[in-house]
Design brief:
alpha/beta, Rossmann fold, 7 helices, about 40% helix, globular
């Protein structure tokens, strides 16, 4: 399986999601637009796409001219029925792709916060069997309206739209399910983390929260990655059977 990874920011790699996908035999091709890498022109060579987070706003087309090419590429993935998985900024870009707005939230969400699976989330192919109230890493200042055709899978008290699915092949998570301890520690050193944490020490906070929640977050991410790769494999096999 050939998975395209859009790494929107150098500090936001695929983390546990990427590790688990590779463990399942997927080949990840990472494209970093902020380093000057070109967005692929076609979805044809790929079996799925992972769109990661970043510090930029999903609503800022002028500041991110590569968005136009990215939206064109993602429309190609959707038209072909190829699975897409968006994380944080990626979830916001997918919301825009499906006609909804992205806007500044009334506060910055930061840290391992309690979320809740909806009734639909509890029976979803990717999420069923997972704890109904996981604590997952957040670090975002924007939010989005839920696309009309989306099914809400997870919600939170501080930001309602935390995960959704469109059809069978599009998944998006506002929360950072991909994080490793190293990623969290790198983020906690950023001035933006101190600001998001109300001026208090974000390093002490995240270390304490990781001691309680990192293991559960990692299990959550590995299951999502496993089942998403299963989805990619099923879609690929179905396409091959149809072509044959």
């Amino acid at each position: 399986m050939h998975i395209l990874v859009i790494q929107n920011h150098p500090g936001s790699p695929a983390g546990i999601l990427g590790q688990q996908m590779e463990a399942r035999g997927a080949w990840l091709q990472v494209v970093e637009p902020l380093t000057g890498a070109a967005i692929p022109q076609s979805a044809d060579p790929y079996d799925g796409v992972l769109i990661l987070g970043g510090a930029q706003s999903a609503a800022d087309d002028a500041g991110n001219p590569y968005f136009a090419d990215l939206f064109a590429l993602l429309r190609g993935f959707h038209a072909a029925g190829k699975p897409m998985l968006g994380i944080c900024l990626g979830s916001q870009l997918l919301a825009r792709l499906f006609g909804e707005r992205v806007y500044r939230h009334d506060h910055v969400e930061f840290g391992f916060l309690p979320l809740e699976l909806t009734e639909s989330g509890g029976t979803d192919p990717l999420l069923r069997g997972l704890p109904g109230r996981p604590h997952l890493m957040e670090f975002h200042e924007d939010a989005f309206d839920l696309p009309a055709d989306a099914t809400l899978l997870m919600t939170g008290s501080g930001c309602r739209n935390q995960a959704y699915r469109i059809g069978e092949s599009v998944y998006a998570f506002q929360c950072h399910i991909e994080v490793t301890p190293e990623i969290v520690r790198d983020w906690a050193r950023l001035p933006a983390a101190t600001e998001a944490n109300g001026g208090a020490d974000p390093i002490a906070r995240t270390e304490a929260e990781m001691a309680r929640h990192m293991e559960g977050s990692a299990r959550f991410a590995r299951q999502v990655a496993d089942r998403w790769i299963d989805l990619v494999a099923r879609r690929l096999a179905a396409g091959l059977r149809k072509a044959g």
